[in-house]
Amino acid sequence: MALPNPGDGVKEQSRTLLTSPPIANISPSFFRKHRSQRINTGMATTNRASLLTKTHKVLKKHYTPVAAPLDRNVLDHILFACCLENASYEKAEDVFARVQEMYFDWNEVRVTTVTELAESMGGLPDPVCAASILKHVLQSIFETYYTFDLEHLKKQNQGVSVKEMAKYRSITPFVLSYTTQQALGGHSIPIDASAFNTFEVLGIASESDRQELRIPGLERAIPKTKGAEFGSLLHQLAADFHASPHSTRVKDIFLEIAPDAKERLPKRAAKRKEQLARAPSSDKAKNPAAATAPKKSSAKKAPAKNTAAKAPPKKKTASSSAVKKSKKTAVKKAKKVKKKSATKRISKSKPR
Questions:
Q1: Which of 230, 241, 231, 154 is nearest to 194 (CA)?
Q2: How far apart are CA 49 and CA 47, in angstroms?
Q3: In degrees rounded to 5, what are phi and psi of residue 283?
Q4: DSSP codes, 235-285
Q5: Between the N and C ends of the chain, which has fewer C-beta atoms within 10 Å?
Q6: Distance (Å, rounded) from C-alpha 135 to C-alpha 142?
Q7: If DSSP codes are grouped into helix, strand and coil, which group holds residue 124?
Q8: pLDDT per residue as tens digits for the range 285-333
Q9: Mean pLDDT for all residues in the chain
Q10: Residues 6+ positions from 186 with CB-CB distance below 8 Å
Q11: Which DSSP letter does residue 226 get?
């Protein structure tokens, strides 16, 4: 089941024109105007459908489907999906169990701060974002029903329940699709940002599909009986790709599905630049003699600098010695003058 979208009616009408015969009340100009668009869309849907089918077959070889626990209610599925988005099943299960152990009930989680909740959700790719979504969804549910019991959504019409959940504040398309599939039994394959990146590498999705937050023809190519299995397998590949984009295992799976995916795989350009920048330092580390050679020259030059620095004090000592000599001569002259004056006084004082 596709998520509610205002443009779904128009797009579904354009898709039916590919297979259904012309209708009498539609003018021929309409078909001439959209003829090229219909042909391109038809080719894209066939290629996309074959790629999706091949993706499902290949993923079965490398991953095992993960089934959701049967004892979870609607609220548990919503909150677990908040932890599962862009994360692996193992990390999401650990965080979901940790939050339930650390807090008394979901109302305590609702009134806590995002910072404190993010600390208890460590291990996820983005704990702050996951904590913010989980807290705001809980707050919106409480403000809507003043209770956390959502089992009435199973009894309602599925379309009405999906529209009702879509009104929850901060709920993401992934959380909505996961809850629709696991809690309500609908045919809606959850797609998060990592899954969009995976589909772009495989050539299944485009940038316009990312902007619309949906993959056209996904639920048609994958039947409802295999929707939960495909969603689990796809999420495991997407989580591995999100955790390590340059993994050789993930790369081999991509090339097994679509050989032309090599052109769309992420490159290691940044790391290559860093390696080139670190190359001179690595050469010095490999050649210690070259690294120590400049040190010897600098050590030899150091005494020259010291001698040059000590040279001025020698000049100062020379000038100071000259000053001392001049002072000594001045003192001697003063003494001689004093002796002469003293003899003169004595001579004057002696009687003749």
A1: 241
A2: 5
A3: -65, -40
A4: HHHHHHHHH-TT-HHHHHHHHHH-GGGGGGSPP-HHHHHHHHHHHHHHHHH
A5: C
A6: 11
A7: strand
A8: 555 555 555 544 444 444 444 444 454 555 445 555 666 666 667 766 6
A9: 78
A10: 1, 158, 162, 180
A11: G
